[in-house]
Recover the amino acids of this structure.
């Protein structure tokens, strides 16, 4: 089957954007199967403790809130679980917390993905040091054990986790996942979805969520539409969406706007302050210092297209041109997959003269090198 035909089939059956899929495939490939295409996609880029602020929220706010609810069974879904690191972190956090504070509560974690290859790796629970690169050493020592040149999740943290093949676009599951879920993590999956399919994904996620359950998205993922009854809660400038089936609820965007009026640090939230500092550094041609600032803020917003673009400009300016071009192309690919109504973090403040001048800096440099950018 031709690559173009397989891409159409995957788009039709899984809702993924053809541009994203084509970007991750060789230019000429024969005899590809649908599952091989799915396995090649870089959706499976993940690691332990990714977006650590969200895991901090789970540990410090969600689990105590659930323990106080009087319920005795917690169900969690890791949607688009890839190779399973996220699911095991959730299991370990829950088991450690409940063993200490609420031993009567049981927890089950379902990891769901469309790739057979990713699920097989997840079930093996064996990982290289690269998957542990953001993980605190104390957690490595507690949750994992050495297994040759790799690390393996300890049995006590594996027993509450089950992996299934499932298609979130069609809600078609290999085994029934046992919804509704009290907590769903679907991080950095929706950025790969074609925009006209996004309402289906959001609707299906909402149907899998229990009343008052929480949905956690990735920093660059398109937000739920207004017609879904979510209320938004915040932790360290990160939104969490709570299902509110009953009672009057403000739309997501309305709550976000009202929350954004609450400022810190003398009227400017810390992330916005950091971005303004980065723009100032670029304008002053202090590119290496700007790169250091970008590394720091990227820990919280690792897939934000605007930060990628700024990072690309800086890398290009310090003669790392190939890497700079790659960053900017990634940024444009993310932006091309979003609806006009989707606004990643910093979209409003980056519609400024400073951003225009930063882009012009890059265009001038590219023109000087006879390296026209598309």
């Amino acid at each position: 089957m031709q690559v173009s035909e397989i891409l159409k089939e995957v788009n039709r059956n899984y809702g993924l954007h053809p541009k994203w899929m084509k970007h991750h495939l060789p230019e000429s490939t024969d005899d590809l199967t649908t599952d091989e295409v799915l396995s090649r996609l870089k959706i499976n880029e993940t690691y332990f403790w990714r977006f650590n602020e969200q895991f901090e929220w789970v540990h410090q706010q969600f689990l105590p809130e659930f323990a106080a609810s009087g319920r005795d069974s917690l169900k969690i879904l890791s949607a688009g679980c890839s190779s399973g690191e996220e699911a095991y972190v959730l299991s370990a956090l829950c088991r450690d917390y409940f063993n200490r504070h609420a031993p009567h509560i049981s927890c089950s974690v379902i990891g769901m993905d469309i790739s057979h290859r990713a699920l097989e790796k997840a079930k093996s629970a064996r990982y290289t040091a690269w998957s542990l690169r953001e993980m605190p050493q104390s957690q490595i020592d507690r949750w994992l054990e050495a297994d040759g040149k790799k690390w393996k999740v300890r049995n006590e943290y594996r027993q509450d986790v089950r992996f299934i093949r499932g298609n979130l676009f069609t809600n078609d599951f290999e085994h029934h996942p046992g919804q509704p879920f009290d907590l769903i993590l679907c991080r950095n999956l929706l950025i790969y979805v074609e925009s006209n399919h996004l309402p289906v994904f959001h609707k299906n996620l909402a149907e899998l969520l229990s009343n008052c359950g929480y949905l956690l998205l990735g920093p660059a993922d398109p937000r739920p539409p207004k017609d879904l009854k979510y209320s938004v809660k915040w932790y360290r400038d990160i939104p969490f969406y709570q299902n509110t089936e009953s009672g009057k609820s403000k739309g997501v965007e309305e709550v976000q706007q009202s929350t954004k009026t609450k400022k810190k640090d003398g009227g400017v939230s810390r992330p916005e302050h950091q971005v303004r500092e980065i723009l100032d550094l670029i304008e002053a041609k202090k590119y290496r210092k700007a790169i250091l600032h970008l590394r720091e803020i990227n820990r919280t917003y690792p897939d934000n297209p605007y930060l990628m673009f700024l990072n690309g400009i800086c890398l290009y300016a310090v003669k790392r041109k190939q890497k700079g071009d790659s960053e900017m192309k990634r940024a444009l690919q993310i932006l091309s997959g979003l609806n006009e109504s989707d606004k990643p973090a910093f979209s409003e403040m980056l519609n400024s003269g400073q951003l225009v001048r930063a882009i012009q800096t890059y265009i001038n440099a590219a023109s000087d090198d006879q390296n026209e950018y598309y």
